[in-house]
Amino acid sequence: MGHSKTDCSWTVRLEISRSATSEPQTLESINYRSAAQEGPPPEMTFTVKVVPVDDVKSVSVLVGDSVTLQTGLTDIQRDAVIQWRFDHQKSPVAEINRTAGIFNTYDGADGRFRDRLQLDHQTGSLIIKNMRITHSGLYEADIIRTSSKHTIHKTFNVTVSDDVQSVSVLQGDSVTLHTGLTKIQTDDQIVWKFGDQGKLFPRLNDPVNKKWTNTDLNLQTGDLTIRNIRRYQHGDYKVEINTRTMILHRKYRITIIDAVKSVSVKKGETVTLPITEIQKDDLILWMFGEIVLAEIHKAAQRFYISDVPDKSFRNRLQLDHQTGSLIITDTRTTDPEEYYLKISSSRHIINRRIIVTVGLSPGAIAGIVVGVLLGAAAVVVVGVIYYRRRSSRNVNRQNPTSNGAQDPGDHVNEGTELTNAS
After folding, report:
1. Residues 6+ apart with CB under 8 A from 80
2. Alpha helices, DSSP H only, in 223-359?
3. The CATH number, out of the four listed (2.40.50.140, 1.10.3210.10, 1.10.10.10, 2.60.40.10), of the domain defined by the range 262-359
4. Signed CA dihedral, 389, 390, 393, 394: sign only
5. How many helices (H) and strands (E) does the chain have?
6. Cβ contacts of residue 96 below 8 Å, gap of 6+?
7. CATH homologous superfamily for 53-161?
8. If we measure between CA atoms, which residue out of 260, 326, 322, 321 comes closest to residue 293?
9. Lower CB count within 10 Å: N or C terminus of the chain?
10. What region holds the Immunoglobulin domain (predicted)?
């Protein structure tokens, strides 16, 4: 009364009143009050839930996977009400009301969740089965207890992809599959699976059976290494990672291919040490021992050939920029026999050993043969001379001169024979 303004020409400002702490907390509700700078102060209060960014759990899974979004509860209280929502939609996709005996899941407005949702009746966690890319989005859970003033709010940012990392290896290669973690925390869960066989490691670093004793787990990162890989170990590998801040599923498809791991070449010829397949982010090192011969980083378009310390490969190395193969020209018998290939990416590392045997060229072999023949001929000539001189001596002994004395030349012949024999 007494206020003549009817055009509502006032601007709104917001006053925030919050609990004693200055920083937003996970369970905190903030009360907003709107007040007019001019005219009567019409007041209206409403509550906004504040969810710190750190409390949004990232979930990255593969098409066809099942995933469980955890409430963090070990048991639902009798007066608890839980509602699960998808992408800020008003209608829940799942809800629990213990008091009313409600444990329901819904198909969603467009039916995308039909036959895919389950509720854990003990914890209230939401299970999504056989996921598709259309199930990507924000999932939120409100956990309310009527006896409490606070609402527990859980948020999951879910991404569904069909990404499968392909890895081509040779039988006998060593390959490491990365989890992407830098360090495992004590409460992190990491599970490696192979095909339909279930877990590879029921206990930490303890393979399922003897066929997998050539595998190791990195206790710092959870990476899986397969040494001297065998044919029966080709197929699909999957790692499921569950940490405080994320759920991550990764899939790798290992193909074992037939290729030459040992090469024979004649001296002076050119030999190519091949790579079967490389990805855009691969880092490739060609080495012998600890010495790097060549380096390729496809993403950075870097192709580098090293001049080794003893200069033995100077002007004799080339790189195939398309395949990453190493080409050695004018091969020599003094070249190394063992070469090592290391292919690294964000997802995997492959280690390979290639044996190169450099034999003599046809010309060199012909020269050796001629030399051997000439040597043999010389031995024959010496033998003939020796035989003739020996025969001559025997004849002289058997036919003495008429006066009964020996031919004065006998002594000379005996000396020559000794010299030749020696």
Report:
1. 96, 98, 124, 143, 144, 145
2. none
3. 2.60.40.10
4. negative
5. 2, 28
6. 76, 80, 81, 82, 83, 102, 103, 104, 119, 121, 124
7. Immunoglobulins (2.60.40.10)
8. 326
9. N
10. 56-161, 164-257, 260-359
> What is the residue extent of each domain of the chain?
12-49, 53-161, 167-257, 262-359, 373-421
Residue appearing with tokens 């002007």: 315
Under a CB-based contact definition with an 8 Å cutoff, are residues 331 and 271 in contact?
yes
Instruction: Judge: domain 167-257, CATH 1.50.10.10.
Output: no
pLDDT more than 90, % of the chain: 50
pLDDT for residue 38: 55
Q: 278, 348 in Cβ contact below 8 A?
A: no
Backbone dihedral angles phi then psi of residue 333, each to the nearest 5 degrees: -70, -15
**Comparison of pLDDT for 367 and 229, the residue scoring more:** 229
CA gap 238, 244 in Å, rounded:
20
Tokens of 32: 């907003």
What average pLDDT does range 376-388 have in this prediction? 49
Written as six digits, the tokens of 169 are 């290896």
DSSP state of 405: P
Cα Rg of the chain (Å, integer)? 42
User: CB within 8 A of 65, min separation 6: which ones?
Assistant: 130, 131, 160, 249
Buried b (16+ CB within 10 A) or exposed e, 382-418: eeeeeeebeeebeebeeeeeeeeeeeeeeeebeeeee
Instruction: Report the 10 Å Cβ neighbour count for 122.
Output: 10
Using CA atoms of 296, 297, 298, 301 in order, give the dihedral in degrees to the nearest 10.
Answer: -90
Beta strand 317-319 with 326-328 is antiparallel
pLDDT tens digits, one per residue of 228-278: 999 999 999 999 999 999 999 999 999 998 777 888 999 999 999 988 667
Inter-residue contact 314 to 307 (CB < 8 Å): yes
Give burial (CB, 10 Å; 0-12/13-18/19+) of 320: middle
Whole-number Å distance between alpha carbons of 256 and 30 = 59
Amino acid 392: pLDDT:
55
- Max CA separation in the chain (angstroms): 178
Structure tokens at 229: 């890989």
